[in-house]
Design a protein that fits this description.
This protein has 71 residues and is mainly alpha-helical. 97% of the residues lie in helices and 0% in strands.
Amino acid sequence: DVEAAQAFFPKGAQFVKESAEKLYANNQEVLGVSLKTSEAIGALAKSSFETAGKQINDTITKTAKATKKAA
């Protein structure tokens, strides 16, 4: 029936529009959370590397000082 199809079309189009908008909003939220997570992981890795680098530098400095005293 043509009239039923015409009545259904606006409702179907509205449903598709709302679904697309929700999908877009959810994708944006997921992207934001992913970005924050990767920034936090990057900061954690940076901190770990800085700590390890400082410990290595301290060990080298202590070894150099001990070598100078021994010589």
